[in-house]
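Annotated sample (chain length 178).
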Amino acid sequence: KRAGVPAFGRLGLIAGVLVTASFAAPTRDATLSVVGAVVLGVLTTGLVGRRGAPPSWEPSAVTLLGILYINWLLGHALWLRNHAAGVELILFLAWVTWLGESGAYLVGSRFGHRKLAPVVSPQKTVEGAAAQLIVSLLAALAGQPWLYPSLGLSSVMILGALLGIVGPWLVGAPDALV
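Output written by the structure step:
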């Protein structure tokens, strides 16, 4: 909405809750069925236009993106929790992301001048993104012995780098990199 793109807000909220809740189902088939029904429902809603106006796909696409970006990914945390080292991995990912975002905010708000994505998130800066990468790597190294001791050094570096690179683009707080 901030960028002036319409979406189906109420439908997205209800469908998103259904998608996340479906990950608690005993089988993955149930999750696939719910996700499939949600996709079809949102796309069908996009076909219903105002009288005489052609259907608009933009609200459907944005709504689906939000549902998949937030609720579908969040649902995987429910699955991950049941993995042998799932709790440790979730804590590790939260630790690295939180510290990386905090570093991005502190550096970006103090030293940030070059805008990273001004149309989508006007407060994010290149300097904040660079800080996020560095702090995410350091947080991964510092948190590994404490939060996920069985994770090897190469995996720690890969996860820290991935979280530091995708963080500015994927983390929900739009102004996290001020």
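Annotation: The first strand starts at residue 115 and ends at 117.
Annotation: Strands lie at 115-117, 121-125.
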